[in-house]
Specification:
Helices cover about 50% and strands about 20% of the residues. The protein binds erythose-4-phosphate.
C-alpha cells in the first residue's frame, strides 16, 4: 500500500515526508498553476530533496512526438521521475515508447476499464483512475478501481493501479480494499487518515487515568 501526495506545494510535501509514510508525489498542471511554481524547477527540487519512489511530471502536446519532446526536459533528473501522459491514442503511443526505453509512466485521466486495458498494453507503470471525478458524475469511482484490479489480476498485467482524484478517507480505504496499489492523496486527506473519534475519546480517558495512577 503506497501513498503519494497529490500536490505541487513544497511545504505540504516536506511536512508530511518526515512521517516516513509518503512514497511519492503526483502533480498536474492545475496544481502547479495554483502553487505558482516553475514546473521544471519544482520537479528538480523534489528529486533533490526527497527519496521518493515516484514523482509524476505531466507533459502536454497534441501528438506523441510533442509529448515525447516535452518529456525530455524531465528525463535524466532522477530515476524516480515518472512521465504523466493523458489516456489518449497519442498519449499511449508516447507511453509505449517511454516504457520500452525503461522510463516510468503514469497514464492519467482514466475513466473506464477499457481505457485501463489499453494503458496496460502500452506498458504503463501506473494507471490513474479518477475516483472523485467519476463520483461527481454519479458513477462509482471505487467500482472502477475494483474492475481494473480484477481484470489486471486475471491477465497478470504489471501496470499498477494509482487511485487518483480522492477527496475523502473513506474512498482511500475502499480503493486499497479493491486492489489499488497506490492512492494519491491531497495533503488534507492524508492528515485525516490518522483520525478517529474513538481514538480521541479513548486517549482522553487513558490520559486521565495515567494522571490518577502516577
Ligand atoms: C492525479 O494524478 C490528479 O492530479 C488528481 O488526483 C486529480 O484530482 P482532482 O479530480 O481532485 O482534480
Amino acid at each position: 500500500m503506497k501513498i503519494f501526495l497529490d500536490t505541487a506545494d513544497y511545504n505540504s510535501i516536506a511536512e508530511r515526508y518526515v512521517t516516513g509514510l509518503v512514497d511519492g508525489v503526483t502533480t498536474n498542471p492545475t496544481l502547479v498553476r495554483k502553487s505558482g511554481v516553475n514546473y521544471l524547477d519544482f520537479i528538480k527540487t523534489l528529486a533533490k530533496d526527497f527519496a521518493f519512489e515516484s514523482i509524476s511530471a505531466e507533459v502536454d502536446g497534441e501528438t506523441h512526438d510533442v509529448m515525447l519532446e516535452n518529456a525530455n526536459q524531465f528525463l535524466n533528473i532522477d530515476p524516480s521521475i515518472t512521465i504523466k501522459l493523458p489516456l489518449t491514442k497519442e498519449g499511449l503511443i508516447a507511453c509505449r515508447d517511454l516504457s520500452m526505453s525503461g522510463i516510468k509512466t503514469n497514464v492519467t485521466l482514466c475513466f473506464s476499464a477499457a481505457q485501463a486495458v489499453m494503458a496496460a498494453k502500452a506498458g504503463a507503470t501506473y494507471i490513474s483512475p479518477f475516483v472523485g471525478r467519476l463520483n461527481d458524475n454519479s458513477i462509482s469511482g471505487v467500482e472502477l478501481v475494483r474492475a481494473i484490479s480484477g481484470l489486471y489480476c486475471s491477465h497478470g498485467a504489471e501496470t499498477k493501479i494509482l487511485a487518483a482524484s480522492l477527496r475523502d478517507v473513506h474512498h482511500v480505504s475502499r480503493c486499497f480494499l479493491y486492489g489499488a496499489n497506490v492512492c494519491t492523496l491531497p495533503p488534507a486527506v492524508f492528515d485525516k487518515m490518522y483520525n478517529h473519534v474513538l481514538t480521541d475519546s479513548g486517549l482522553a480517558i487513558f490520559e486521565k487515568d495515567f494522571q490518577a495512577i502516577k
